[in-house]
Amino acid sequence: MFLKGKTAIVTGSTSGIGLAYARALAAEGAAVMINGFGDAAEIEKERAALEGISGARALYSPADMTDGDAIAAMVQQCHDELGGPDIVINNAGIQHVAAIEDFPVEKWNAIIAINLSSAFHIMHHAVPHMKAKRWGRIISTASAHSFVASPNKSAYVAAKHGLAGLTKTVALEVATHGITVNAISPGYVWTPLVEKQIPDTMKTRGLTREQVINDVLLDAQPTKQFVTVEQVAALAVFLCRDEAAGITGANLPVDGGWTAQ
User: Which domains does the chain have, with CATH numbers?
Assistant: First the structure.
């Protein structure tokens, strides 16, 4: 349990990739603050389970990732109650699929706020704590869409490209402080976020559910398989190891070969 005594914040971690991150970090002994929306009883069940896995404390923050003040308060709560944060994983994200002329402005604003700006706010408040300890790990869930584009995803692709740039910039700023900053870019992972975009894609492209899965989602991935949340989380855990201290400013694909094409 090499993360015993370390504290992690994982945003968007009540399900999907984020919850896998939290479980994987807890399995290495980290105290974890999870964040996101969902059924209160289910969230409490997961929070308690994390404590059972780690032997350390686990907290839940309902902070709204569109609210910079709420994000600042979340980081401060983590510091006050758990110490740290030593590790930050920016994972909160939403999606909307529509052609540019039909794309709702409010959806654009929300996607940029949650998928990109929230990462800035957390880094802004977490980096001073990491500098004080001369150790930190910042990891952001980008996407294959941080390398390449797909139609009808203007806000998501813009946000993920921006997240890749933010990762590089902050990595350079903190390079001499024992802090690494990296992005992980999954291809299609079977999560609630992917499942929810299937109906929109069906409507936009006039396809059946099976056609969307096989001809749109998995068409891009040479392996013809969804990436698993456990595969993504395992890479995040490695990036937290001392052996990964020389990896910073990187955007690492876990995409079944998608961006190799």
Answer: 7-187+228-246 (3.40.50.720)
> ∠ at Cα 67 (63, 71), nearest 5°?
50
Kindly state the average pLDDT of the residues 76-96: 97
Rounded to the nearest 10 degrees, what angle do helices 16-27 and 229-239 cross at? 50
> How would you class 100 by CB atoms within 10 Å of its CB: exposed for 0-12, middle for 13-18, buried for 19 or more?
exposed
Preceding amide of 128 cis, omega within 30: no
Tell me the mean pLDDT in the region 31-45: 97
Q: How high is the mean pLDDT of the chain?
A: 96
- In which element (H, E) is residue 177 found? none
Q: For residues 52 and 26, what is the distance between their CA atoms, to the nearest angstrom? A: 9
pTM summary value: 0.94
Two tokens, residue 160: 């993920």
Of 21, 60, 156, 188, catalytic: 156
Residue 193, pLDDT > 80, answer no
Each residue of 103-116: pLDDT tens digit? 999 999 999 999 99
22 Ramachandran zone, left/alpha/beta (phi>0; psi -120 to 50): alpha
Structure tokens at 26: 């807890």
Encoded tokens for 70: 């709420």
Distance (Å, rounded) from C-alpha 236 to C-alpha 183? 9
Please provide residue 178's backbone torsions phi and psi, each rounded to the nearest 5 degrees: 75, 20
The pLDDT tens digits for 202-222 are 998 999 999 999 988 898 899
Is 21 annotated in the active site?
A: no
Which of 228, 223, 218, 146 is closest to 190 using CA atoms?
Answer: 228
The one-letter amino acid code at 120 reads F
- Candidates 247, 1, 256, 6; CA nearest to 139 is 247
